[in-house]
Design brief:
Blueprint (H helix, E strand, L loop, with lengths): L3 E2 H8 L3 H10 L10 E2 L1 H24 L7 H14 L1 H9 L5
Antiparallel strand pairs: 1-2
Helix pairs in contact: 1-2, 4-5
Length: about 100
């Protein structure tokens, strides 16, 4: 069975070789450089590890509220706040300008 090089796996997963090396060492896989070889079992273990990490990151991104930074987003946020809050609607109707 041919071994897969760390740098080949990194390219396949769109990661830096250093990330693969670090994670492999954390899992007890002895690799030193990007040209080190990995067995099929080690490759599968690393793929599962990175897949699990990516799923956690995606779940966190979904649960985090959207952040508002630009003026267009602030305007949209105000419109949503006005739509969802009757008190804000009442205050807005008293203003001399509309958003």
């Amino acid at each position: 069975m041919p071994k897969v090089r760390v740098h080949e796996l990194a390219k396949e997963l769109n990661l830096a070789s250093a990330d693969i090396l670090f994670q492999a060492n954390e899992l007890g896989i002895e690799v030193k450089t990007a040209s080190s070889g990995l067995t099929e079992d080690e490759v599968e273990l690393l793929k599962l590890q990175f897949d699990t990490e990516n799923n956690k990151k995606e779940a966190e991104e979904i649960t985090e509220p959207e952040k508002i930074s630009s003026s267009n987003n602030k305007k949209e946020a105000m419109e949503v706040a006005l739509k969802n809050n009757p008190e804000a609607q009442a205050l807005n109707s008293d203003w001399t300008f509309k958003i």
